[in-house]
Amino acid sequence: MTDAIRPLIAGNWKMNGLKSSFGEFEAMLAGAGDLAGKADLLVCPPATLVGAFADRARGGKVAVGAQDCHPKPSGAHTGDLAAEMFADLGAVAIIVGHSERRADHGETDALVRQKAEAAWRVGLTAIVCIGETREQRDAGKTLDICGTQLKGSLPDGATSANLVVAYEPVWAIGTGLTPTAKDVEDVHRFIRGVLTDRFKGEGEKVRILYGGSVKPSNAAELMAVANVNGALVGGASLKASDFLAIAAGC
Ligand SMILES: O=C(CO)COP(=O)(O)O
């Protein structure tokens, strides 16, 4: 980690986890103390577990977040969940605009922006995800795509407290493939430039996470890249030993 920004290691459990996963979360809480304050830790379980995890985590060294929210605070939206509900449960952050939601649910940049604003409405941090597909990378459009997503997905008024940006190349998610350190560096430098231009005095401090096949074996190398301020971890965040090993690599 080359920057003075405190790293964040965030786990996105996606649609994984049952009541029986509680022990794994307990193990994360138990092991977090050994990290000597190297990084902030956040686990975003499925919505069904946010309340129980947040209750258990109170006062501990692992915070709890959600994976999505509806833009509205309440209303006739069957099956949807409001940011207010996650704040009520004790969540501190909400992931918005993950590529799986953009693909599975047709989420646009404009909707992602509204969801980030919903998180802010209740004082939560929005973790806004961006990233290019394989085809877009091969066509040399990575920075264009990331620039467009940032412009459309980030609300005005971002601060280092209310915003985290996660760069997740779609082709690296769940595939075991990762970009080279140089490629990660190029994209993160670009994101930093966009943030510092737009959010004067804050953009230089906003955490930019890398996500996509982060594992204990590659975490240290990725975390050492300039402007990489942590990781958004999918599969490897389901096991306490892997998740803690990734955090130890900061
Ligand atoms: O999508 C991700 C985190 O949001 C990354 O998932 P994997 O770590 O499983 O590749």
UniProtKB/TrEMBL annotation:
One of its GO terms (biological process) is glycolytic process. Its EC number is 5.3.1.1. It comes from the Bacteria. It is found in: Cytoplasm. Substrate binds at N12, W13, K14, G174, S213, G234, G235. GO terms for cellular component: cytosol. InterPro entries: Aldolase_TIM, TIM_sf, TrioseP_Isoase_bac/euk, Triosephosphate_isomerase, Triosephosphate_isomerase_AS. It is an enzyme of class 5 (isomerase). The keyword Cytoplasm applies. GO terms for molecular function: triose-phosphate isomerase activity. It catalyses: L-erythrulose 1-phosphate = D-erythrulose 4-phosphate; D-glyceraldehyde 3-phosphate = dihydroxyacetone phosphate. Pathway: Carbohydrate biosynthesis; gluconeogenesis; Carbohydrate metabolism; erythritol degradation; Carbohydrate degradation; glycolysis; D-glyceraldehyde 3-phosphate from glycerone phosphate: step 1/1. Keywords: Cytoplasm, Gluconeogenesis, Glycolysis, Isomerase. The keyword Cytoplasm applies. Belongs to the triosephosphate isomerase family. Homodimer. Involved in the gluconeogenesis. Catalyzes stereospecifically the conversion of dihydroxyacetone phosphate (DHAP) to D-glyceraldehyde-3-phosphate (G3P). This is Triosephosphate isomerase. It comes from Bradyrhizobium macuxiense. The gene is tpiA.
